[in-house]
Please model this.
Amino acid sequence: MRDEITTLGLGLTQKKAFDRDLELGLDYSFAYGRGKTDASKGYDYPDLTSKQHRLEGYALYQLTKQHSLRWDVRYEYFQDVDYLYTGEERNLGNLNQDYNGYFTAVSWLYKF
Model:
């Protein structure tokens, strides 16, 4: 079995945004994966594939020299295709992963 994964990404950061102690960041990444199985008996299994898009943003505000507040937001789209489930949709439904995910968090950071 051989796995091949390609990941591309781009990130941007702006410090001192709006002339304040505010740092803004934005990241995008795309990943494509393919798993190849080589069988010794001559049967070639189909490839397993997956795709992922991820967009992340954050804002970091420096409250004092030791305290800061951070807000993170993330969106992710993931999809995979597994040949084991091909033809089973009629009996079991679609078992491949195909989802949109959202995440947000607020963090308080303290530096010692």
